[in-house]
Amino acid sequence: MLSKKVVLTFPQPLLDKAIVYRLIKDYNLIFNILQARITPDEEGVMILEIRGKREDYKAGVDYLRETGVKVRPLNESIFWRESECTHCGLCTDVCPTQALTLERPEMRVRFEKKRCIACELCISLCPVRAIERRVNKKRKSDEDI
Amino acid sequence: MKTIREINEKIKQGKAVVVNAEEIIDIVEQKGIKRSAEEVDVVTTGTFAPMCSSGVFLNLKQPKPKIKIQRVWLNNIEAYAGLAAADFYLGATQLPEEDPLNKVHPGRFVYGGGHLIEDLVAGKEVELRAIAYGTDCYPRRELRQKVRLKRDFNDAILLNPRNCYQNYNAAVNLSSKIIYTYMGMLKPNLGNITYCSAGQLSPLLNDPFCRTIGLGTRIFLGGGIGYVLGKGTQSRAEVRRRKGVPVVPGLTLSVKGDLKQMDRYWLRGLSFLGYGASLMVGIGIPIPIIDEEMLRYTTIRDRDIYVQVIDYSRDYPYGEEKVLAEVNYQQLKSGKVRLGGKEIPAVPLSSYFRAKEIAEILKKWISQGKFFLTEAVETGV
Which residues are CB-contacts of B112 (< 8 A; sequence separation ≥ 6)? Predict the structure, then answer.
């Protein structure tokens, strides 16, 4: 069983097609939608966490690519710059997965990277810009995802 | 009864007993008011929060030939120059000329006066541009120069007309769409409640009638030493109280200090989504325990400090504030408050964690004999 986070980009002509459900139906994969949006360029962007057998996963990704969906690994992560943080706590309000929390009774901000799904809601809300998006280094090529 | 002079004598001898406004609560619980008032000399308080009514008076070292500055920009942010030749005032909420503001809503306000103040304090180089019409005594008409705080300015005085609110509102949104305010992002239909106070550590809640705080009180300001200049703008003494504590914003202070001594750790530029730029200011005020009454004030607890809940979608903007409810800081700090029949997340804008750090620093300064108390010349409300 493997588990991977991937970013799917749906070009405009694919927007009204039902596609990802087939990962479940035909490829026996389980997925969790971490983020889904339509960009101003009218592309669809979806971040999925996909789980399943290695061969099913590979076949599922091949299927997505054949239909025209761009698939790339989620290689961006959220970085909390602790030294810049004022521990006000405002960010904890928008974090959907409680990766950012206030430790009580100290009222100190804590970031648990494992829980973060890189939704980026905290980035523009942090008044001192202590949270950044960073591209992860050392990733295998797209083909290996 | 103790006088401030007697307390200073103890500080000098290294014998002063100094505790923070959180510790005093337990001490009094164990020892009682009378004994604690005899033993404790100073209670330290702190707050680290957005304080928009802040700014810096700067005095530029004159270039050759000299200039009588008519208009001036630093990193493209305009400062007010309607003063003597080389003096200008840079406000914390001022935005650069090219800022897109809220044209694409919500605006991000990435850089403003507060950030510029932070950059100056951090010793960063900033771009100064000034224009003038030229006079016989000040012939220069234009100036472009990279400047640094300590190298290029004779003086830099942080001078804030309104800081250190005694209490504040708690903000909610009764409308059906997200709103962006100086109280943060408020989610629709009572989706969250935001608040901004250090509660039991907050300076003016530990001396609610300003018996000891007034013009001349020496304080911790932005990591350096500052002074209280008296009441701030919008300071209100005749207000609704609960157990003697204002339920409304209440008193404010005007403060000043030498920016060159300060530290960017305690003066931070802020960007409020959809609202604007500001400055987060660290302030700590020592409360001399001159008698039992003063001690009693410093034992205030979060559970006894109530705050009014105000709707910022309609009531606040249209000046028709109605008190929707009253909640206390113990409830708010727990992270959840029951309102309108449901439990809603409570979110702070003020850093309690860092407010306590200020109270601790001030405690250390006094205990080590580096900081002495002053007698204010104008006290009371």
Answer: B77, B92, B93, B94, B95, B96, B99, B269, B271, B276, B277, B278
